[in-house]
Amino acid sequence: MAVVDTGYDGFVAVPEDVFAKAGFAQLSPTRRLVVTADGHPLEMVSAMGSVGLPELGLSVGGPVESAPGMEEILVGTMLLRGFKVTLNYCVSAAGLEICR
Questions:
Q1: The pLDDT of residue 29
Q2: For the chain, how far is it from start to end, CA to CA, in angstroms?
Q3: 98, 83 contact by CB (below 8 A)
Q4: For 48-67, how does the pLDDT look when each residue is reduced to its tens digit (9 = 90+)?
Q5: Is 13 helix (H, G, I), strand (E, B) or coil?
Q6: SS3 per residue for the chain
Q7: What is the model's pTM?
Q8: Phi, psi (5° rounding) for residue 50?
Q9: What CATH number has the domain bearing residue 15?
Q10: What residue spans of the chain are helical by DSSP H?
Q11: Domain count, the chain
């Protein structure tokens, strides 16, 4: 499960423990300074990874990031480019399709 964050221009951000357990910390991650929605600076670490989308038969690659205090997985607009995202509040469902 992940949160779709249209205010996050990155690919995917994960909590520090997920970043470490997945082995990204051993890949010589890069660092970048970002500004949060409330205006605070935040240093994020980043390493290249991929996200599997088995329902679509795809794996999409991009920078996986983490930062201190992060508690949930965020999906950003970099990953969502090229996809149609639909929200259906009638049945509490979300959908993801490849743009055609």
A1: 87
A2: 25
A3: yes
A4: 999 999 999 999 999 999 99
A5: strand
A6: CCEECCCCCCCEECCHHHHHHCCHHHHCCEEEEEECCCCCEEEEEEEEEEEEEHHHCEEEEEEEEECCCCCCCEECHHHHCCEEEEEECCCCEEEEEECC
A7: 0.87
A8: -145, 155
A9: 2.40.70.10
A10: 16-21, 77-80
A11: 1
Token pair belonging to 29: 């991650």
d(CA 77, CA 36): 15
**What is the rounded average pLDDT of the residues 76-92?**
93
Task: Look up residue 64 and give its two tokens.
Answer: 């996986």
Sole residue written with tokens 């201190």: 68
What percent of the chain shows pLDDT beyond 90? Answer: 74
For residues 89 and 79, what is the distance between their CA atoms, to the nearest angstrom? 23
Percent of the residues in the chain that have a pLDDT greater than 70, as a whole number: 100
- Sequence length of the chain is 100
Reading the block at residue 53, the tokens are 């989308």
Name the residue among 57, 74, 56, 53 with its Cα closest to residue 65: 74
Domain enclosing residue 69, as ranges: 3-98
